[in-house]
Design goal:
alpha/beta, Peroxisomal Thiolase, Chain A, domain 1, 4-stranded mixed beta sheet
């Protein structure tokens, strides 16, 4: 499900540069418009890497700020503030998330379980709980929440959903049992234009909003999609501060260490070999035929993994295409890539190896077989 406000990358970059310059005379370290322009030129993600991104909040990318509500920069400047507040952002998130869940389900029947995945907005009751209450599914649908894990969260969500399906089969062997995984990510709410160093510049021009829902069912019940063969998680030693995601008064602050692409590249090959071995796949023989779904934490991450693993363009083309068309949508990104790969019409039996990364520094992987 695509958010309603598409923003060309040039416009998004112009928007953040304009707000940063407008607010530059506030704070302990005033920054000139010329310095901000240099930061944008050096660190911003270029249109050749991301063509456009989409957002739920209409303020993002709007060059005329008069109607802004979440990014009310003129009020911030008048009051001496330099950023928004978390309460306003969470209220916006909860309202939109409820609308998204209504659109996800339309006239669909109740699932047996919903796992709501997000790292960009929380509140109780959640959008999943509100949906179940409104639909009268009180005795039909259970709910779990998978929150604040970051960009890799789709893989542990699949792990949880697969465990729920297996547990149900162990207890009652219910053939129609269905677990839905629903992602609602609104990364744009957490842009902080009062900060304009190298790291914020990358974040402001990389992340986007995205939503997606998919289901896990017992083996043999799906006529298309993927069979889950193996799942794995590794924390890279000594890297706990390389990637962070911390709540603050104005929103959620991301920390991205410059060594992240290099650290991932150093550990990714043995991780992939072990994961494929767990799936019963001969990595040496089948490696050139495997399709890779790589979470595009940024252009350099995909490129470094492609180089280290010696992958062809065809093996990573859908990962690059999603980054180009939609940016980094946090946990929703990898499922968007799964959808793109499925839509290719690849033959049954084809292996798909998924990789995602997040705070920890964590590497998550999954091996699927196309049904």
């Amino acid at each position: 499900m695509l958010p309603p406000h598409p923003i060309p990358q040039e416009q998004g970059t112009e928007w953040i540069a304009k707000i940063c310059s407008f607010l530059a005379d506030h704070g302990d370290k005033p920054k000139s418009a010329a310095r901000i322009e240099r930061l944008i030129r050096r660190y911003a993600v270029k249109p050749a890497q991301i063509a456009s991104r989409r957002f739920e909040c209409p303020d993002v990318g709007r060059l005329n700020w008069a109607d802004n509500q979440v990014f009310d920069v003129e009020r911030w400047k008048q009051s001496g503030q330099t950023s928004g507040d978390l309460t306003t952002k969470m209220r916006f998130f909860l309202d939109r998330a409820e609308q998204i869940f209504e659109r996800f389900y339309g006239s669909k029947a109740a699932p047996d379980h919903i796992i709501h995945v997000t790292c960009t907005g929380y509140g109780s009751p959640s959008a999943a709980q509100v949906l179940v209450d409104r639909r009268g599914w009180h005795e039909l649908t259970d709910i779990s929440h998978a929150y604040h894990m970051g960009c890799y969260a789709s893989v542990p969500a699949v792990r949880s959903a697969a465990a729920l399906v297996a547990l149900e089969r162990l207890g009652r062997d219910t053939p129609e049992y269905r677990v839905d995984v629903a992602h609602t990510e609104m990364c744009g709410l957490h842009f902080n234009p009062s900060e304009n160093g190298p790291e914020p510049t990358i974040i402001h021009t990389l992340f986007a909003d995205g939503h997606i829902k998919y289901s896990l069912v017992p083996p043999g019940r799906a006529s298309s999609g993927y069979q889950v063969l193996a799942l794995a998680e590794r924390i890279v030693p000594g890297t706990s501060r390389q990637m962070t995601w911390m709540p603050e008064s104005w929103g959620f602050r991301m920390g991205l260490g410059r060594q992240v692409p290099q650290l991932i590249a150093e550990h990714i090959k043995p991780f992939c070999r072990a994961l494929l071995r767990d799936a019963g796949i001969d990595s040496e023989r089948e490696w050139p035929e495997i399709t890779f779904a790589i979470h595009p934490g940024g252009p350099s991450i995909i490129n470094s993994i492609q180089h280290v693993l010696e992958l062809s363009e065809a093996q990573v083309e859908q990962s690059k295409a999603v980054l180009m068309e939609r940016g980094n949508m946090s946990s929703a990104t990898l499922p968007h890539i799964w959808k793109r790969i499925q839509d290719q019409g690849l033959p049954a039996g084809k292996t798909v190896l998924s990789l995602a990364f997040g705070p920890g520094l964590s590497i998550f992987g999954a091996v699927f077989r196309i049904i």
